[in-house]
Amino acid sequence: MNIKQDKPSLSVLILTFNEERHIERCIKSVDLIAKNIFIIDSFSTDKTVEIAKKLGAEVLQNQWPNNHSVQFNWALENCNIKTKYVMRLDADEVISSKLANEIKEELLQVNDIRGYILNRGHIFLGKKMLHGGTYPTQLLRIWEHGRGYCENKLMDEHIVFNGDYKTKILKGSFWDHNLNNITWWIEKHNGYAIKEAIEQLNKKYNFLNENQETLDNEEFSIKKFLKHQFYEKLPKSLRSFLYFHYRYIFRLGFLDGYQGLVWNFLQGFWYRFLVDVKVYEIEKKAKELNISIKEIIKEEYGFKL
Prior knowledge:
Blueprint: E1 10-16, H1 23-29, E2 36-41, H2 48-54, E3 58-61, H3 68-78, E4 85-90, E5 93-95, H4 97-107, E6 115-124, E7 127-128, E8 137-144, E9 148-150, E10 159-161, E11 167-176, H5 182-205, H6 218-229, H7 236-250, H8 257-289, H9 293-301
Parallel strand pairs: 1-2, 1-4, 2-3, 6-11
Antiparallel strand pairs: 4-8, 5-11, 6-7, 6-8, 9-10
Helix pairs in contact: 5-8, 7-8, 8-9
């Protein structure tokens, strides 16, 4: 995409694989703010690349390494980024017009801000999930090029800053709005569950090298504290059940109607319970077969750690 002087100095990086359903919407949502849009594609077999090129994005292809962090850091190293700022965006995410205008106004100013924290929400079964404690989730998604990279984690990876930084939280929102059906969603989260199970097991057995510090803001720090110091110390047979009730009742998830019930049950109970079952199964098999956790993960799930 050609650089235009009326746009802020921002490059948007989007990882894709068979995202023809989402990519046009995603690219158009950042057209107001992006001087350059880079698509890092894992050799899609649909029209993702064709659509992206037609819209003026620059497309690079790299084999999927089974890790978002590795792929995104490859993008940072291999995309010809000449802008001051970089933005991370998923193909099924869309920037609201309010946030786009806010980003443009901010980035065109001369200031000492090194990174911008954005408010993310989810649209599930066609409805915005505004209750239940998942909105807004505050994430660093825009930062000065050369100052940040993606931490090496299988799940919930964040951007790590090099050196000192000053950040600002913007008011507008962007939305995770996947258009695939519920079967696709369940299969995707089944894959997420094994990755999160591996992360939890690593905290106990320390077989991965993930000793990195992430950028914390107040919202992220509170959630991190509650997850590691409270939730993970509860009995596995009880915690997902309690978490669902916390979200659906005490955080008013029921106000999002039927979609809110499905969202909080699947994402707040079923998914969390599935993670715990996978942790239990891996530990049990490792003990029965008298082999390491790492070996069980490789043999049963095909993860080369």
